[in-house]
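Notebook p. 47: complex prediction with 6-O-phosphono-beta-D-glucopyranose.
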Amino acid sequence: EKGGWSSFMAKEVSEEPEAVANTIRGRIHEGRVEIPELDGMDDFLADIDRILVIACGTAAYAGMVGKYALETWTRVPVDVELAHEFRYRNPVLTPRTLVVSISQSGETMDTLMAVKYARSRGAKTLSICNTQGATIPRESDAIVYTHAGPEVAVASTKAFVAQITALYLLALHVGRVRGAVDPMVAVEAVTELEAVPGKIARVLETEQARIEQLAHWMADTRSVLFLGRNVGYPIALEGALKLKELAYIHAEGFAAGELKHGPIALIEPGQPVFVVVPSPRGSGEMHKKVVSNIEEIRARGARVIAIAEEGDVAVLPAADEVLRIPLAAPLFEPLLAVVPLHIFAMGLAEAKGLDVDQPRNLAKSVTVE
Ligand code: BG6
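Predicted complex, structure tokens below:
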């Protein structure tokens, strides 16, 4: 079933382009996002006053990315919460709250219990799930399936990009229903989304071998830090999670702006730091700040591996290595920037001789609370 790949994970990373393309398919009509599964929900979606996203692990990071798109296009306030934290604090839920759960397996017990709880408290629940007929979608009021195809490796990769894709489609659908997103803006967003599979394929083509080489050189590394800002922040968290899960080394993700409030104390000579650099074409100011973060940690001896868009020359003097992603509108960068991090974690685990499909102590779907 691995079809010539060294692991299911390697196969599944190679399938990231199709995971996005298949999740989009059938949901865009003449530049408008129309999710057929949400037919008949317009009145409710027009009336919601809050969106709460609940999930665990990688799916929660997809939710954090989705928050930016949901707020941008729907203008509804969005909170993202770990499913296992949500139920134990008497959360505020009303009939106008849309609770969006995200789960690849659809069986994660923490997420399932949170969905049931939200429903019992009168909220409407929508499940973003990769497994047809799983328990969480069955227990939800509405379902938007991701079509990443079966994911076998324990660490989620293609499902992650499919989850972000589904959240963006949901944001554009709800934004349209509410009249919150300008139709021209929506058309541009759809064009960007449709271009993502080709751009991910390009990252795999141009950067995969280099990243694997880098991972090989770094096989003895004991700690890696990840920095990101805005939509790059959850990507930094995801990069760190993958490295812990697969390579069993200490890894932490930080919001780049938080650096000076603590984490910079960790920087000592030789410390590897991945930095997800926002496009200078988005917020030029944010880009400058991240570049100056790189300079600050470099001055303290960090070894910086930047993930930056093609043509961003400002990062060149600052970083030790630059991994390139194709140009995309800022909201779409996470779908590209995560790919080098998936490859890196897998490459480092392989360089250490570890089983990337079945990391120790982990299960693909955790069906206990
Ligand atoms: C963890 C898996 O236990 O569950 C992660 O190891 C996954 O890879 C998380 O992200 C959530 O799983 P699911 O199926 O609910 O998306």
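Notes: The two ends are 31 Å apart (CA to CA). The mean pLDDT is 96.
Next step: compare against the earlier run before touching the bench.
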